[in-house]
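If your schedule permits, I should be very grateful for your opinion on a structural question. Please examine both parts with care and let me know of anything in them that strikes you as inconsistent. The record follows directly beneath this note:
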Amino acid sequence: NNETSTYTEYLISKGHRPDINPEGEGGQIGFSLLGVESGQRVPTFSSNAHFDMPEEDQMASYLAQEACEFIDEHKDRPFVLYVSTFEPHSPYHGPFMDQYDPGTLPVGPAFLKKPESASLVNKVRADYFMKFMLEGVDQTEDPYIMNYAAHREDITTEMGWRTLRAHYMANIGLVDKMVGKINQAIKDAGIEDNTIVVFTSEHGDMMGDHGMLEKRSMFEESSRVPLLIKVPWLSNPNRVIDGSVSHIDLVPTLLDLIGENVPQHLQGKSLLSVLEGSEDLSENDVFISWNGYDNSVPDRFLGDHKINRMLRLPWRTVVTPDRWKLALCAGDQCELYDLNNDPYEMINLFNDPDQKDRIRDMAARIRVWQIQTGDEVPLPTT
């Protein structure tokens, strides 16, 4: 049935009962984690439905099973397999949620600390998420917290926040097992020596750092993600390559690795020479963009109208090879961080007179990138 996802069908076959009924209030399903948006209305599952399911019925486990079957069926010819799971995205409960002790789980100096010198968008987000702990606001009266951002979690105490982090880390365990099963399937298929494997993530999560949850931030916790690449004919011995790269370079690099032409219209560039060791990343700037949103690309209500209002504004950010980060917005307080001496981004140096020339140089890099990519977002005068 192409009107519903195979995962939904799988869960129904395992005896799980859909918790979204098309005949319910409003008669619309819309987008949900375990179903698809389609013209035909069918029962499906909400993003909270997986809480109490066993490990084998979690999305990562199901996708591992499907991926392993695909590998076995296609091992005798070239293939590209893309596997993307929802874990460890909220909601954070799952089968391993008692794996880590919240009281001993490491946290950094930015944990539950509001970003007082940062942009207004970061400050209003921190004010919203921290008010339940600092101001005694009843989180059970907040639909966004209870239904989406922290469903079944307690963010009214520090231990509650630590427990949420522990649940997040535990859900990473589901992804860990998925990756392990896929790697084993590649080995069992006898194609390990000529199969490229890439592991990365779409975004991070603030997890209480700077007093926030979720993404939508230029802070490292949200915008910096893991990237591991296994190229059997290049990966011995294993090594860490110094510098920063962007997701936009992945497709050109992979095309180059498999001997395909890289189309001229792609904005990214191949980093094959870096993987081979003939070049490095000492001159590689990384650009990060938040495009805001408008009526044509709406966002859901994020708990406070001030948050939605400020997130309408676009941002353009650069991380330079010397590990400085500049985040520019034409309608908000801009941010500058020295990631070498301030890796947790506690001190915004944008208004420091001693950094004016650095800001102008970094802003010029963003402007050059805009010209190269056809980006027309306005930048503030620096």
The chain is about 30% helix and 5% strand. Confidence is low (pLDDT under 50) at residues 25-38.
